[in-house]
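Hi team,

As requested, here is the filled-out complex form for the pyridoxal-5'-phosphate run. I kept the field names the same as last time so the parser does not choke. Let me know if anything looks off before we queue the next batch.

— J.
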Amino acid sequence: MRFPEFSMERMQSTWEHTVTYDLSESGLEALTLEDAVRDLGLLAKERLGYSNGMGRDATRTAVASFHPEATRDNVLITTGTSEANFLALATLVEPGDEVIIVMPNYMQLHGIARGLGAKVKEVWLREEWGWRIDLDAMRAAVTDRTKVVCVCNPNNPTGQALTAAEVLDLATIVEPHGTWLIADEVYRGAERVGPETATFWGHHERIIATGGLSKAYGLPGLRIGWMVAPPERIAAAWAMKDYTTIAPATLSDLLAEIALARRESLLKRARYLLTERWPILESWAASHAQDLHWVAPAAGGICFFGYSYPIESTELVDRLIRDWSTMVVPGAHFNAERHLRIGYGMPTHTLRGGLEAIDRALVTLAD
Ligand SMILES: Cc1ncc(COP(=O)(O)O)c(C=O)c1O
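And here is what came back:
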C-alpha cells in the first residue's frame, strides 16, 4: 500500500499553527472546553481506562437518532470522520476494484482508494451549473464493475449541498449495480441557508454515511467521528479498527455524548456564526467581481473561488504563506486549478486580516 500525499492536510499540518491568518479552515471557530461542558466536574470523575471500542452506547444512540431508522447497532464511533472514511473504504475495496469519486472532493477517499490499489474514476460537479451534480454523467459512469461511489455532501470544497431529491436520485442510480455508496456527511448541520441536508442513509442497503463533530459542532479537537452502516459493515470496520485506534479517546467519547445531547443548540450556533461571517466574505468577493468568480455556498465555512490571474494556485498560496503569513487552500489540492478555497468560519479579526492580506497579494499580481 502506497498512499499518495494528501496535499491539503500536509499543507495545513505544516502551517496552521504558524501563519497569522489561517483561512484554510473549513469548519467553525471551535468551542472551548467550558463552552462544551457547563459542568466540568462531570469530567473529573471519569476513569481514564480504555473506552468501549465501538464507542459509548449513549453516543452511538445519539448518532443513530439523526439517521432515520438507524439504531445504535448501525453506529461505530471513530477517531474523527477521517477514521470512519478510512475504515469504510478499506474494508470494502481490493486492488483493481473501481471506485467513483464525485469531484471536486476533499480528496481523502480519493487518496485512500488509490493507496488501496483501486482504479479511480471521477465524476465532476458542473461549475457552470453552480457546482450541481450531473446525474447523467453518473448514470453513464457507474456500472456493475463499480465497487464504491464516494460523495461528500455538503460538498467540500464548493460548499454546495445536494437537494433531498438529488440524494435520492444518486442513491437510486447506484443501487441496481450492487455498488456501495459512501457519503461523507461531515458538513451536514453546517448549513448557512436552507434546511439540514438530507442524509443518504436509509435509501438502500449498501449505503454508509460518515460524519463527525469537527465542522458543524465546532469540536474538531475531540477527534470524534462516526460511521453509520449495516451491521456487517460495522463489524468489518470494528475488526480493522483493532489495528488503527482500538477505541475512541475516553474523554472525547464522553464529551461527544454531552455535545450530541445539545445537538440542536450547537447547530443553531453554527448557523448563527455562518450567517454572521458570510457577509464579510461576500462583500470582499463583491469587490473582486472583475477577477474572481464564485457561487455562494450553502453549507460549511468555505467558499470556492475561481480566478483569472496568470498564476498556478499552489504558487499563489505559497506566496500568500511566505509573504503575507496567510493560508488558503489552492484549487490544485482538489484537482481544480485556478481556484482557491477560502474559509470564513474563523473569528472575524482573523477573517478580516486574512482577506486584507489576500488583497495586498492580489494587487502585486495585477501589476
Ligand atoms: C469532507 C471531509 N471529511 C472528513 C474530514 C476530516 O474530518 P475529521 O476532522 O472529523 O477527521 C474533513 C476535514 O476537513 C472533510 O472536509
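Two things worth flagging: The first strand starts at residue 21 and ends at 22. The chain has 13 helices and 13 strands.

Thanks,
J.
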